[in-house]
Amino acid sequence: MIDFSTELFYKTSRSSGAGGQNVNKVETAVTVMWKGGESQFFSGFQKSRIYDKLINRINSEGILQLTVSETRTQFQNKKLATEKILDLVNSALVIPKKRLKTKPSKAKIQKRLNDKKKLSEKKVNRNFRGD
Prior knowledge:
3 strands
């Protein structure tokens, strides 16, 4: 996991939700922003992978931003926002393992065909015509 938290910058705003009158006075919501294209921590391939995976969260200036207002304190929200953006970017870098195509063994195919045949015979034997 790459820690690029030194490249993050923060902006605070008034939060909605719990807090009573405190909500109207204190800026507890934290927006964390990161310019991925200017990062010193990632290679060109990694930057393009991050951009491709998180394109819906990156604005027109190339800034990835995330707003957190889950807790009542600015400090906790800042900590949560940092953790979330680090997880988001690092999970975008994970390359999933390719699936190998497999086919059933001959014994499995034969067993399936035999089971179908038995079921078919059972159903045919149910048809009793009392002529």
